[in-house]
Design brief:
Elements (H helix, E strand, L loop, with lengths): L12 E3 L5 E2 L15 E3 L35 H7 L8 E6 L5 H14 L4 E5 L4 H11 L6 E5 L3 H11 L3 E5 L16 H18 L2 E6 L12 H5 L2 E7 L5 E9 L7 E7 L2 E4 L18 E8 L2 E13 L7 E4 L3 H14 L7 E7 L11 H13 L7 E3 L2 E2 L5 E2 L4 H10 L4 E5 L11 E5 L2 E6 L2 H7 L17
Parallel strand pairs: 4-8, 4-9, 5-6, 5-7, 7-8, 13-17, 15-16, 17-20, 20-22
Antiparallel strand pairs: 1-2, 1-3, 9-10, 10-11, 11-12, 13-14, 14-16, 18-19, 21-22
Protein name: DNA repair protein RadA
Family: Belongs to the RecA family. RadA subfamily.
Pfam family, one: Zn_ribbon_LapB
């Protein structure tokens, strides 16, 4: 007879830093590569049973929406990203690199909310109360309805919530708060899950808008378990360059509004202020025509932004010429250089190429390909493009120009800022004609071009005999 084993299955092992599980003990985590973080995981022994309900189920048409109406945060750009403002009972996660200005932004939001006579509780686990008070004095954020507490224990934070009964709760940050009786150190997977779940549970039951500050890893993702992003209602990323005062808040997840919307801010010594028209920060004011420059129209969320692309091309003495980019995707730059050489006869394989943006803008959208190509050819030939020209369009590997989304909004934004000519891709049905078309929109002349070679000839950056248009398949 076959022997039956009566020994209970042994629980596995789990990493206390990232939650990675394995069947046997190892000294180093196979996911986050942390040493000594793998420990035996306790097996669950309890079973779920029926329990009393908190509120009875009702038809969806009888559910009131008045309790979840938007309330302004006092910061218009943040309201734009959130879809209208703060929602009672919502859990918001704000993540960003160290020093980008997360605490300054949330202190401004807390002060503006307290100014509207809504009680606000600001819990700091990274700084002392006096340090936060010094920042509030500098930014003008001292308000009677703004309460401040420096705590790192979850139980103490819940006690402050019971005593204060705030409308807005800010926790800076969730990785510094620890729960007693839970395995792991503050910031670990188990601790972050327990702390976030407890705070979100209080937020839902008491209709408290809760904003949690999250840390990021070296690759820019939110630190901690992925379940943290699933628990919250809104995930915001605070982006910015250390060498620039310009900051962006981008919505990555939003249950109450649009996703991928952005808000623009200016971070200075006096605090953080909203920038309602950030286009001028990314366009350089030149006194005359300058070779190697072109203005692109990119789309950040639903907001069109104008950004200037600059290029510098010099002969190289190296066997492998340099390809240096700043604010641009290096792979897109390499692709545009290959298309210019193959389909336009612009040979830059023996030249050093430097391409960058103005004001710390980051252009990862393919709509900036045409502006990049114009800037590269202009820098190579030493011929400046005409004044007041913007270009937008994606370049294909065959040298054709592809349409980009929301083209009318981009053209209207460029016309509002005083540009006179826009170079855009042709409609798919017009590509076979291989000839530019033009029309006028809000006083701006819009030029339809089918391919990048036609755009370069139209702007007189190259002669007609220097480039050859890509072949059109016969139908």
């Amino acid at each position: 007879m076959a022997k039956t084993s009566t020994r209970a299955a042994r629980p596995g092992y789990r990493c206390t830093e990232c939650g990675w599980e394995t069947g046997k003990w190892v000294g180093r985590c196979g996911e986050c590569q942390a040493w000594g973080s793998v420990a035996e995981a306790s097996a669950p022994v309890h079973r779920a049973a029926a329990a009393p309900v908190t509120t009875p189920a009702v038809p969806i048409g009888e559910v009131s929406v008045e309790e979840s109406s938007f309330r302004t945060s006092g910061v218009p750009e943040l309201d734009r990203v959130l879809g209208g403002g703060l929602v009672p009972g919502a859990a918001i996660l704000l993540a960003g690199e160290p020093g980008v200005g997360k605490s300054t932004l949330l202190l401004e939001v807390a002060a503006q909310t307290a100014r509207l006579r809504h009680r606000t509780l600001y819990v700091t686990g990274e700084e002392s109360a006096s340090q936060v008070r010094l920042r509030a004095d500098r930014t003008g954020g001292v308000q009677p309805e703004l309460y401040l507490a420096a705590e790192t224990d979850l139980g103490a934070v819940l006690t402050h919530i019971e005593e204060t009964r705030p409308t807005l709760l800010v926790v800076d940050s969730v990785q510094t708060i620890g729960a007693s009786g839970v395995d792991g150190v503050p910031g670990g997977v188990t601790q972050v899950k327990e702390v976030a779940a407890a705070l979100i549970r209080v937020a839902k039951t008491r209709n408290i808008t809760t904003v949690l500050v999250g840390h990021v890893t070296k690759d820019g993702s939110i630190a901690g378990p992925r379940v943290l992003e699933h628990l919250v209602d809104v995930v915001l990323h605070f982006e910015g360059d250390r060498n620039s005062r310009f900051r962006m808040v981008r919505a990555m997840k939003n249950r109450f509004g649009p996703v991928d919307e952005v808000g623009c801010f200016d971070l200075s010594a006096d605090g953080i202020t909203a920038v309602t028209d950030p286009t001028g920060l990314f366009v350089e004011q030149h006194h005359g025509q300058v070779a190697g420059t072109c203005v692109a129209v990119t789309l950040e969320g639903r907001r069109p932004l104008l950004a200037e692309v600059q290029a510098l091309v010099t002969p190289s003495a190296l066997e492998r010429p340099r390809r240096t980019t700043s604010g641009l995707d290096s792979s897109r730059v390499a692709m545009v250089l290959a298309v210019l050489q193959q389909h336009c006869g612009v040979r830059l394989h023996a030249h050093d190429v430097f391409a960058s943006t103005v004001g710390g803008a980051r252009l990862h959208e393919p709509a900036s390909d045409l502006a990049l190509a114009i800037a590269l050819v202009s820098a190579s030939h030493g011929v400046a493009p005409p004044t007041g020209v913007v270009a937008m369009g994606e370049i294909g590997l065959a040298g054709e120009l592809r349409r980009v989304r929301d083209l009318p909004q981009r053209v209207a934004e460029a016309a509002r800022l005083g540009f006179r000519v826009a170079v855009v891709p042709s409609e798919p049905g017009q590509a076979a004609r291989r000839s530019p078309e033009s029309w006028v929109v809000d006083g701006m002349k819009v030029l339809d071009v089918p391919d990048v070679a036609s755009a370069l000839r139209l702007l007189r950056l190259v002669g007609r005999d220097e480039v050859r248009p890509p072949r059109v398949p016969q139908t």
